[in-house]
Design goal:
The chain is α/β, with parallel strands linked by helices and about 230 residues long. The chain has 7 helices and 10 strands. The strands form 3 sheets. Strands 4-5-7-6 form a 4-stranded mixed beta sheet, with no helix packed on it. Strands 1-3-2 form a 3-stranded mixed beta sheet, covered by helices on one side.
């Protein structure tokens, strides 16, 4: 039997099981719940756990170079980092990400993060405005986030938050995230009405909803570490 890496007990009333992006398995349980009940729950979930762990394994293999920081994603394409005489980070049509030679190794990720954020502010802002006009849903403002758990959010004040890492994703997934958050302006939940609204603007949204799971590992990446 596959056993969890952690069992967290709290004042909660129900059991839950989560397979994290790194493959760790966490079970959350009520403080007073007996071990035998928890173990039976874990045993019943073995098929589901194996399925999730297989997805994690496949993603690690599929994006091995990205996880190892040997390539970087931009709009779904992979760019190989190359030290160059350029003055600032830039990309070319050979799918190379040119890194100024002046950058010390330990500062490259910090510089790349700043570059991504600057690009995200411009590109996501423009795309948000374009989609707002097309679907006639208007946010009050856009703010970039550095969330390790979500791609975007929208609050009751109409502020849309988009993770700066969104620019790493394929264009269709970027549009899905933006439409998803704008639909929360009318439905602040994930009810049937909400998904019907998303489908109205993106008839094939379920495809992007599924594909985005492959990129969830990005949310925990890009700490300040060298190539």
């Amino acid at each position: 039997m596959i056993v969890p890496d952690y069992i967290e007990r709290s004042k909660r009333k129900t059991l839950s099981l989560t397979v994290l992006k790194d493959g760790n398995i966490i079970v959350k349980a009520p403080i007073s719940m007996k071990d035998e009940v928890i173990n039976r729950f874990i045993e019943e979930k073995q098929g589901w756990i194996r399925e999730k762990l297989m997805i994690v394994k496949e993603n690690k293999a599929k994006f091995e170079d990205v996880i190892a920081l040997k390539s970087f994603l931009l709009f779904g394409n992979r760019y190989k980092p190359i030290k160059s005489q350029v003055k600032s980070i830039e990309t070319n049509n050979k799918f190379e990400m040119l890194i100024p030679i002046k950058y010390e190794e330990e500062k490259i990720i910090k510089a790349l993060t700043a570059w991504y954020k600057k690009l995200a502010k411009q590109v996501l802002g423009e795309r948000l405005e374009f989609i707002e006009e097309r679907i006639r849903l208007k946010s009050s403002s856009l703010k970039l986030s550095d969330s390790k758990g979500r791609w975007g959010s929208c609050n009751s004040f109409g502020v849309v938050h988009l993770n700066w890492r969104v620019v790493m994703l394929p264009p269709k997934i970027i549009d899905y995230i933006i439409v998803h958050e704008l639909c929360h302006l009318k439905e602040m939940n994930h009810s049937k009405e909400f998904w019907a609204l998303v489908k109205k603007f993106l008839p094939e949204y379920e495809k992007q909803k599924k594909e985005i799971k492959e990129y969830s590992f990005l949310l925990g990446m890009y700490e300040k570490r060298p190539l």
